[in-house]
Design a protein that fits this description.
Layout: H1 8-18, E1 21-23, E2 35-37, H2 39-58, E3 63-66, H3 75-80, H4 82-85, E4 87-92, E5 99-101, H5 102-112, H6 124-133, E6 150-153, E7 157-163, E8 166-171, H7 177-182, H8 184-191, E9 197-206, E10 221-231, H9 233-253, E11 261-265, E12 275-283, E13 286-295, H10 299-308, E14 314-315, E15 322-323, E16 326-333, H11 334-345, E17 346-350, E18 356-360, E19 371-375, H12 381-392, E20 397-399, H13 405-415, E21 419-423, H14 425-430, E22 432-437, E23 443-447, H15 448-458
Parallel strand pairs: 3-9, 19-20, 19-21
Antiparallel strand pairs: 1-2, 4-5, 4-6, 7-8, 9-10, 10-16, 11-12, 12-13, 13-16, 14-15, 17-18, 21-22, 22-23
Bound molecules: zinc ion.
């Protein structure tokens, strides 16, 4: 059990210092709530996405992948309800021009004063009255001089082409789900899938939110990994329950501590939804949503049927019965999961002799590099490069020949490399190397031609 107190600041410093994540547009002073994944961060994130795809697509005979376009016909967003009601209640401070979300102001106030108020259940007028009655001030300048609440749509707008009528407004998708919904018939027809089946997608979404930041937790541009399960309504609740468990098992298998995970069932549901829950993780900023599982009934397909004029009915091949499928959605943010895994993996250990090492205890399957090849001395580098070339055919490997071996081990610990292969003078004699385990720091000796099989078996997910 680790005793290290993990803070967002420690994670951020390690990320910037070791090349996991950099502030977006860094040399221009950054760009609020955007982040760039660096050399080790991109490997980590890709591995997380691969693990998810393996678990939910590769190992699932009823799931099919999709990679839909980010720009969609604007009618899609009319059908989904996003053009009409995907908005936040915002108000501006007339004194210092800060823009705040009214619901967030009330939530923070309620938390501070131990009040049981749920702004989600309030109308704009009720929120306005609450803020006035309780004299909730601007968190930036401390004054109480708000504009009335206005709803701001969260979709990023852009325009496409120039036609005779002018430009056409289009949106960067605020969620990936609609790509699966509009392709429901295409996928079903080409795969001959029978209900229940799922369409999976990993892709970017964009939301023009005022965010409190918190590093990768909430960003305006983020990547979603999600599975839309299409089923008959009578099977939907069972599937919903099944996915709650599968979603939990996935993040536990990836290394998140079960004590820091919990279900959070929603009391307030969208009008069409029959059940919804989050899995929350105990981040350094407290319990927060990690992923969601939603029973969406037949709402999505019925709306697309209405707006596109195309029948979205599925015909049962045995009974010839025609049904509009119910959807169980399972969705998890790749960036947010990476953040949780970074927080979970981080540890500061005191070694014999009093030295401290920072070590990232990633599951080996998601570690950026699987192996680091380290020649004990520079004059062994020819042999070491040979070993590197051999192993690089199978895994992402790091190569490092600068500094003392102890310093090189520390660097690999900080990026979570599970195995360090050291080339020494015996390697030249008998073609064997030492392999050091990141977590136990124990070393074993193996013939070079057995290293790949040894590592492969350890990094399985
Ligand atoms: Zn202000």
């Amino acid at each position: 059990m680790k005793e290290t107190k993990v803070t967002m600041e420690k994670i951020l410093n390690l990320c910037k210092g070791r090349g996991f994540v950099f502030p977006g547009s860094d040399i221009y002073g950054g760009f609020a709530n955007t982040w760039d994944f660096g050399p080790v961060g991109v490997e980590l994130k890709n591995n997380v996405k691969k693990a998810w795809w393996k678990r939910f697509v590769q190992e699932n005979p009823n799931a099919y992948g999709l990679d839909a376009a980010i720009l969609m016909n604007p009618r899609v967003w009319d059908a989904s309800g996003h053009t009409a009601s995907f908005s936040d209640p915002k108000m501006d401070c007339r004194e210092c021009k800060t823009r705040e979300r009214a619901d967030n102001l009330i939530e923070d106030y309620a938390k501070k004063h131990n009040l049981n108020v749920v702004p989600d259940n309030m109308t704009n007028e009720e929120m306005q009255n609450f803020i006035d009655e309780h004299k909730i001030n601007c968190p930036k300048c401390g004054k109480h001089n708000w504009t009335p609440i206005r709803q701001f749509n969260l979709m990023f707008e852009t325009s496409r082409g120039v036609t005779e009528e002018g430009t056409n407004k289009v949106y960067l998708r605020p969620e990936t789900a609609q790509g699966e919904y509009v392709n429901f018939l295409n996928v079903q027809r080409t795969t001959r899938a029978k209900l229940p089946f799922a369409i999976a997608q990993i892709g970017k979404s964009f939301r023009n939110e005022i965010t409190p930041g918190n590093f990768l937790f909430r960003t305006v541009e983020f990547e979603q990994m999600e599975l839309q399960n299409f089923c008959k309504d009578e099977n939907a609740l069972d599937l919903y329950k099944e996915f709650k468990e599968r979603a939990l098992k996935f993040v536990e298998d990836l290394g998140l501590d079960g004590e820091k995970l919990r279900f959070h069932d929603h009391d307030k549901l969208a009008h069409y939804a029959k059940a919804a829950c989050d899995i929350q993780y105990y981040f350094p900023i407290g319990w927060q949503e990690l992923n969601g599982i939603h029973h969406r009934s037949t709402w999505d397909l019925s709306r697309h049927q209405e707006y596109s004029g195309k029948s979205m009915l599925y015909t049962d091949p045995v009974t010839n019965e025609k049904v509009l499928p119910t959807i169980i959605e399972y969705s998890i943010g790749a960036d947010r999961l990476v953040l949780a895994l970074l927080c979970e993996a981080y540890d500061e250990e005191t070694l014999e002799g009093g030295e401290t090492r920072i070590v990232m205890h990633f599951h080996p399957a998601i570690a950026p590099y699987k192996v680091a090849v380290l020649p004990l001395q520079k004059n062994l580098s020819e042999k070491a490069k040979e070993v590197y070339s051999l192993l690089a055919k199978d895994f992402m490997c790091d190569y490092d020949e600068s500094g003392s071996i102890g310093k090189r081990y520390r660097r690999e610990d900080e990026i979570g490399t599970p195995f360090c292969v050291t080339i020494d003078f015996d390697t030249l004699e008998n073609n064997s190397v030492t392999i050091r385990d990141r977590d136990t720091m124990e070393q074993i000796r193996l013939p070079i031609n057995e290293v790949s099989a040894y590592v492969s078996q350890k990094i399985k997910f």
